[in-house]
Write a structure and sequence with these properties.
The protein is an alpha/beta fold. The chain contains 7 helices and 5 strands, in the order E-H-H-E-H-H-E-H-H-E-E-H. Strands 3-2-1-4-5 form a 5-stranded parallel sheet, with helices on both faces.
Length: about 140
């Protein structure tokens, strides 16, 4: 059986980095599976930029932010984003362009699953399964 390939939405990563309750535990379990190579994990490069901004806004200095980003890049692959991904995102019926970019970058990176806490914000297609961290861990 083929191992699962997942894209983690930014909220999953921020739950762990910012220790956001009550979400930390399940999100940490997802990242731990990726870190232990039990599943192949992707992150969108737009998430990297936003994570850096949010970490700085939450009091991290530039060296802490760079260290965290480097660690993320050691455990995650970076999902495909190109002109075609962006065109599909802006031409889609998604109400949030960032969510659309996450979805289409997962699709173009051949991810089976997109893990997010904002399931309601994603349009349901058959190409990439959208699931919460809680349901994924179960």
């Amino acid at each position: 059986m083929k191992s699962k390939t997942v894209l983690c939405d930014i909220n999953i990563i921020l739950d762990v980095l910012l220790k956001r309750e009550p979400y930390f535990d399940k999100s940490f379990q997802v990242l731990n599976l990726i870190n232990k190579w039990k599943i192949k994990g992707y992150i969108s490069w737009i998430s990297i930029d936003t994570i850096a901004y949010i970490l700085k806004r939450n009091g991290k200095d530039i060296w802490q932010v760079k260290w965290i980003i480097e660690k993320l890049l050691q455990i995650f692959y970076v999902a495909e984003i190109n002109k075609w991904v962006l065109l599909q995102a802006v031409q889609s019926d998604f109400q949030d362009i960032e969510d659309a970019i996450q979805y289409y970058s997962a699709l173009h990176s051949f991810c089976d699953i997109l893990i997010t806490r904002n399931i309601k914000d994603f349009i349901s297609f058959w190409d990439v399964f959208i699931i919460s961290p809680e349901n994924f861990i179960q």
